[in-house]
From TrEMBL:
This is pyranose dehydrogenase (acceptor). The active site is at H529 (proton donor), H573 (proton acceptor). Belongs to the GMC oxidoreductase family. FAD binds at N120, Y121, F122, V123. Monomer. The keyword Signal applies. Residues 302-316 form the Glucose-methanol-choline oxidoreductase N-terminal domain. It is an enzyme of class 1 (oxidoreductase). Residues 1-19 form the signal peptide. Transmembrane segments: none annotated. GO terms for cellular component: extracellular region. It catalyses: pyranose + acceptor = pyranos-3-ulose + reduced acceptor; pyranose + acceptor = pyranos-2,3-diulose + reduced acceptor; pyranose + acceptor = pyranos-2-ulose + reduced acceptor; a pyranoside + acceptor = a pyranosid-3-ulose + reduced acceptor. Its EC number is 1.1.99.29.
């Protein structure tokens, strides 16, 4: 990745020039805003955009990391893995994972404008209709059902039909997509020999591996089809390049970067509910200070950052908070619990194919040439993500796997597992052999039963939290990955591959349960899709963190809007479901804050003033100080 860093300076991509991006909170012209959003990530930037549409409302969005401007690996698709363990990453790691041979898994998260939408690997989907209907049924709020949520797909997407792909409309279903929305999305732009073979194999084996004309989800997620990507014209589409950039010129939007929120500040009571409308901040190289929200603080710090902030602020399981000497303000046993994520296992094959990416990754000169080509006109291998096709599958209803657990899928139309196909040696753990060309079929556990936890390591906000996903600690999850591997191999043995695939490589050929387990334990990785740590729950449940309007239960003036509110991991790659949750979240806020009568309006002025003035008053005598 040395190469990538050298090239950063060559790139000039202009942000629209109007933005005033503050780098230290001391430079802000005011300390009180209508809304304070913590985290300018995938969800946070959607909110920043929607809430500033009304020019009478001002919004501060705070981002711990730097700008994404001119950050080459955040712009050039195939270079995205170069963001891992860079200045744009949180560099988290998990505890040793018992289900993965006690390996420590690097848990990357974007730490720059756009958050993980600036760092992810581009697969873009909405989710299965069953995911949304299950969410509606859990929360008792029909607003989360697919019937209602589907309209946000059209608001969100700008599906760009690739001009150079013949019959592109056979690779997606145009009616399922928007083309007036914010986020440019498109199909893979770099054709490879494997493409035609995969599509032919879906015809040869149409019974078990049917072709899916559109992989975005909705009521038809099952089968194999073309990946849709948050890439257009060879360039990443993130929440920063879209939602944030298009709101940039608004004078009521304040963007504060390189500033970490350390904890929330209680600002008085609304009835018996403590209000949290203050945020303690620390900009790089300056002393901490506060900002306040007259209306709401919205946490969009993601599945790791959001529970960490709640816990640091005294909102969490009392016994854990006590251990760190943090006073419990709201006892919430579910904060940081029910972490759920997808797990992926690679199976490599030697191939006769000549156009795999292995040599590009092995040889700096080839990589430099590919980057040069991309610089010229945004084409070539760098313009694309790492996967052109993928598929989603269910286990047979009579499979003995369901003796281990009730069917964990979101519903009858939702998958149990996934297959991802790439034309290179794909693994973060097993280095590519020095010689040879490879393709990789990854199997992914889509409906996991194992649940993990995010908890504090200490009361210091600058310490990384403890992340223990407890991957593959459930028998169903282990069996599911063995069964998925066996089914995937039936696909790989389609006749159309006989002149292309030579044989399994890298010791991934084992067939017995023991051999499969061994391979899974030693090579499994996660797919960065964690959710659940600030889960929505039914109105009167004794578990969960937020209600169906995304307010933190038992508090006033505080919401969570990001991936962490999903009670279970959706059946797809999670950026799309995160965007859709944020779009509805914004609508919920806009609707609630519309003063409906004059007396509402006066009440609103009184309550926001009193919470703000009590906050200012408390500044003198904090009883819940942070130690450094
Ligand atoms: C490497 C990688 C690859 C992925 N690949 C895919 C993929 O191909 N397809 C897909 O759909 N999904 C993918 N995902 C997952 C997807 O990107 C996430 O589910 C989604 O972006 C989560 O959005 P979010 O808003 O919850 O969090 P984020 O987008 O991570 O935003 C959180 C933001 O808050 C900031 N923040 C956190 N704490 C603080 C604090 N205390 N103070 C100030 N700021 C703070 C962070 O820096 C970040 O900008 C991938 C993720 C990663 C990391
Ligand atoms: C992550 O690691 C990189 C490389 O060591 C470093 O530059 C960066 O500052 C680290 N990020 C954080 C948040 O510590
Ligand atoms: C892609 O590029 C074309 C031609 O340069 C341009 O007309 C189009 O607006 C671009 N689309 C996006 C989404 O950037
Ligand atoms: C985790 O979620 C389940 C519902 O899926 C719930 O019953 C359970 O109480 C939750 N656990 C915690 C600790 O929140
Ligand atoms: C991009 O440039 C290459 C030459 O480097 C050329 O062959 C190709 O047609 C160009 N593509 C587009 C879309 O302009
Ligand atoms: C399950 O049902 C399928 C047909 O739907 C049948 O082919 C298969 O043999 C059955 N398997 C078992 C274990 O009963």
């Amino acid at each position: 990745m040395h190469l990538v860093r050298c090239s950063i300076g060559l790139l000039l991509l202009a942000w629209s020039a109007n933005a005033i991006v503050y780098k230290t909170f001391g430079a802000l012209p005011q300390i009180s805003f209508d809304y304070v959003i913590v985290g300018a990530g995938t969800a946070g930037n959607v909110l920043a955009n929607r809430l500033t549409e009304n020019s009478a409302v001002n919004v501060l969005v705070i981002e711990a990391g730097p700008s994404d401007e001119d950050v080459l690996p955040a712009i050039a698709p195939l270079l995205a893995p170069g963001l891992a363990n860079s200045p744009y990453d949180w560099n988290y790691t998990t505890l040793p994972q018992e289900g993965m041979n006690n390996r420590i898994i690097p848990y990357n998260r974007g730490r720059l404008l756009g958050g993980s939408s600036s760092a992810n690997y581009f697969v873009h989907q909405s989710g299965s209709s069953d995911d949304y209907d299950k969410l509606a049924s859990i929360t008792g709020d029909r607003g989360w059902s697919w019937t209602n949520m589907r309209r946000y797909v059209y608001e969100h997407e700008n599906f760009v039909k690739p001009s150079h792909v013949e019959n592109a409309e056979k690779r997606y279903v145009p009616e399922e997509h928007g083309n007036l929305g914010m986020l440019p999305i498109s199909l893979p732009s770099n054709p490879v020999a494997l493409d035609d073979l995969v599509i032919s194999a879906t015809r040869e084996l149409s019974d078990k591996f049917p072709y899916n004309p559109d992989t975005s989800g909705g009521t038809n997620l099952l089968g194999i089809g073309w990946v849709q990507q948050s890439i257009a014209n060879g360039t990443r589409s993130s929440s920063s390049t879209t939602y944030l950039r298009s709101a940039n010129a608004r004078p009521n939007l304040f963007i504060l970067i390189e500033t970490q929120a350390l904890k929330l500040l209680p600002t008085g009571y609304s009835g018996v509910k403590p209000a949290f409308r203050g945020v303690l901040l620390s900009s790089e190289n300056s002393t901490p200070g506060y900002v306040f929200a007259t209306r709401e603080v919205i946490l969009s710090a993601g599945t790791i950052g959001t529970p960490q902030l709640l816990l640091l602020s005294g909102i969490g399981p009392q016994k854990d908070l006590e251990r760190h000497g943090i006073r419990t303000i709201v006892d919430k046993p579910s904060v940081g619990r029910n972490f759920s994520d997808h797990v992926l296992v690679p199976y490599w094959y030697d191939t006769k194919g000549l156009d795999t990416l292995d040599d590009t990754f092995r040889q700096p000169a080839l990589m430099q040439a590919a980057i040069g080509k991309w610089m010229d006109n945004r084409t070539g291998v760098i313009a694309n993500g790492g996967v052109n096709q993928m598929g989603f599958f269910r286990f047979q209803p009579n499979s003995s796997i369901f003796d281990l657990t009730l069917d964990p899928a979101s519903g009858p139309k939702a998958p149990h597992w996934q297959m991802l196909i790439s034309n290179f040696w794909n693994s973060r753990y097993v280095p590519i052999p020095n010689e040879g060309r490879f393709i990789t079929f990854c199997t992914t556990l889509i409906s996991p039963v194992s649940r993990g936890i995010v908890e504090l390591a200490s009361s210091n906000p600058l310490d990384k939290p403890i992340i223990d996903p407890r991957y593959l600690t459930n028998d169903y999850d282990k069996q599911a990955l063995r069964d998925a591997a066996r089914t995937m191999r039936k696909f790989a043995s389609a006749k159309v591959f006989s002149d292309y695939i030579i044989s399994p490589a890298g010791g991934s050929a084992g067939e017995t349960d023991e051999a499969l387990d061994d391979h899974i334990q030693n090579t499994a990785d996660m797919v960065f899709h964690a959710v659940g740590t600030s889960s929505m729950s039914p109105e009167n449940a004794n578990w969960g963190v937020v209600d169906s309007t995304l307010r933190v239960k038992g508090t006033d003036g505080l919401r969570v809007i990001d991936a962490s509110v999903w009670p279970f991991v959706p059946s797809v790659h999670t950026q799309g479901p995160t965007y859709l949750v944020a779009l509805r979240g914004a609508d919920i806020i806009l609707e609630e804050h519309k003063p409906k009568t004059w007396s509402d309006f006066l009440l609103y002025v009184r309550t926001t003033w009193s919470s703000c003035s009590s906050a200012l008053w408390r500044l003198g005598g904090l009883d819940n100080r942070v130690e450094f």
